[in-house]
Design brief:
Helix content: 25-40%
Strand order of the largest sheet: 2-1-11-10-12-13-14-15-16
CATH class of the largest domain: Alpha Beta
Distance between the termini: 52 Å
CATH topology of the largest domain: Rossmann fold
Largest sheet: 9 strands, mixed
CATH superfamily of the largest domain: ANL, N-terminal domain
Number of helices: 13
Length: about 500
Amino acid sequence: MTVPKPIPLRQIVTRSDSHPALVAPGASLSYAALQGAVDRAAGRLTALGVRPDDRVAMVAANGPALVIAFLALAATGAAAAPLNPALSASELTAELTDLRISRLLHDGSASAASAATEAGAAVSVMELEDNLLQIDGLRGDPADAVGHPDALALLLHTSGTTSKPKTVPIRQRNLVASTGAVAETYGLTGDDVTMCVMPLFHVHGLVAAVLATLSTGGTVILPRFRPSAFWDDIVSQGATWYTAVPTIHARLLTIAGDLPEHRLRFVRSCSAPLPAVLWQRYEDTVGVPLVEAYGMTEAAHQMASNPLPPGERRPGTVGRATGVEVAALDDNWQPVAAGADGEVSVRGPSVVSEYLDNPAATAASFADGWFRTGDVGKLSSDGYLTLVGRLKELINRAGEKISPYEVEDVLLAHPAVAEAAAYPVPDEKYGEQVGVVVVLTGEATPRELTAFCADRLAAFKRPARVTILAEIPKGPTGKIQRRNLAALVTEQ
């Protein structure tokens, strides 16, 4: 694998002409305007006392202001910590305190300002006016700064499904490497237009949609995402691709109807397993390739992807490695045989080397450049990766390890099932049994769904409990909150 020479993150935006870079309701920035806005925002941040290695949080809705602020922080060499604006004041205070934030930038959020005060951090309001970022009502003087490849660029918390979230310190060179892998995988060019529907406080939206597009001179559309208006926006904006989690694809598919003529050339799915049934229905309806990718925060997002045609796409897999090495390792950090289950592990220029201030977690997950993802998977002899499940989410029925994805795929093939999620149910005899929750679009009873599974799954994989819900809990990025399902069903 050839590793390109690291460059500062700021330098991935190479255009400075009149081609549109960022388009949002009420704002449209050319590349020239974007470069100017970032330079002046960096100058303003420097004047406020932001220095290299400072940690600056951002709480704002998706939009040009957030993108400009992030690139400006990278130019100063400071680390950005974008946070979910939907968090409460107490949750934001905990995040700011844990990350040891020195300053918070926000777009007028009272809860964010209160949290910053509680955490002892300086606070500033940012607002886009005349395509320039004002911070505390002032525009900065241009600053000729580009940052450094080894500087920390992002501080992000892991989802922390079973323990306290860990902080992932992503350096500028990690982001540049992941951005390049995304752009190369899908052949992005200056003619591409992407609809950014994922939140920018997550690497999926920031890296795959925004940075990858800007690095190739394309256009990023930052809409106020409304599923009911999505397909009209796709047409009116001339979008050529977008990336999202499977739950968003499924929602958009239900309202697709008779699609007008569009310019989409492909659609990308990442951050959660893509059911084969959804893949087929989507391609039949929308008429473009839906490619599944695999990413994690610790790898600055993308690690593997199915290729676009004419490359071979294999539904049920997440494709082949992109920009990194991928292996399935045993408990002794040794590769297992092709086709055998092992813990998916990656190493390469986009992969971080540690968790921040957490030596125990670092020792458990990092060694010799490898990062152990916590996912169980198997590699084919020609490098296609199939995910079996999270180590901590596999259902252990009397020693038999059951992938929740396999059970979910079977249920999603039922015509009345819109969503499905499997989880472990404690059992005195077997240790654990399979439980599932489903959301219906038609008529079906738990007994009928259990019988449907009985014809398609081995006896030990069949659900012992089927619960019908109005909706399945999901996190802010659209992932199913599997860890909450047992408690939720108990409350029913």
